[in-house]
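Troubleshooting entry. The earlier prediction with S-adenosylmethionine gave an output that would not parse, so I re-checked the input for stray whitespace and re-submitted. Clean input:
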Amino acid sequence: MKKPTPFPADQSGRRRVRSFVLREGRMTRAQRSALDRLWDRFGLDAGQILDCAELFGRTAPVILEIGFGNGDALCHMALADPNADFVGIEVHRPGIGSALLKLEQNEATNVRVACADAADLLESRIPPGSLAGVRLYFPDPWPKKKHHKRRIVQDAFVRNVHTALETGGVFHLATDWAPYAEHMLETLARHDGFRNLAGPGNFSERPDWRPQTRFERRGLRMGHQVFDLLFEKSAVTTSPPLRASINSPG
Ligand SMILES: C[S@@+](CC[C@H](N)C(=O)[O-])C[C@H]1O[C@@H](n2cnc3c(N)ncnc32)[C@H](O)[C@@H]1O
């Protein structure tokens, strides 16, 4: 197996176990040209603190989609919800190129994308309490036991999602890999700052508004069941935030 591309150490100097292996793959001419032409319009400097009011020029609910792949769902959700602003994070540049093309074709004005590891961004670049929603659809399942540590849904990641959400904000996850769905449920249930909207131990119905994604269609073709999880940030929590590097806005 190819060695994962090393990424810089995180803020504390530790080398993070990444939830992805960067295989750039082939980039089409259209994807490359989209990255060149459209990055200034839709791209985010992932090295800065996310200031959505300044970015979008308004105050609106902000939804973060992590690992948007080719951007189908991101674009669909943003067009369907013009009163919200959307930020997408992805590490795979050909996918980002495809997403930029869709955003341009649809003249989307309420979307920005970052090319970054979502775990890094959540840890240090997103002001606490600034997100109305976090969406994580069909993350890489890393099925082998020795790779479970690569799964993006881990205690520290969940704590950082919790910190980034406003009270009442919703963390929405979906997967077609049953053992990962159980892992998600257990990890989220361990965090007492979240309330499972389907009741303890239950998966949610797929909300009508959640678009079907490319990986979801692939899973369905293989006969997999799809699991949705909706967890709301509750008002009171006893879990301390993992990070202390960003001050609360206001
Ligand atoms: C299995 S694909 C799913 C893509 C899309 N959500 C879908 O359902 O079609 C997982 C995606 O997450 C991205 N990804 C994995 N870890 C990530 C991370 N830490 N930060 C940002 N993106 C990540 C991968 O590059 C990949 O595009």
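This one parsed fine. The longest strand covers residues 165-175.
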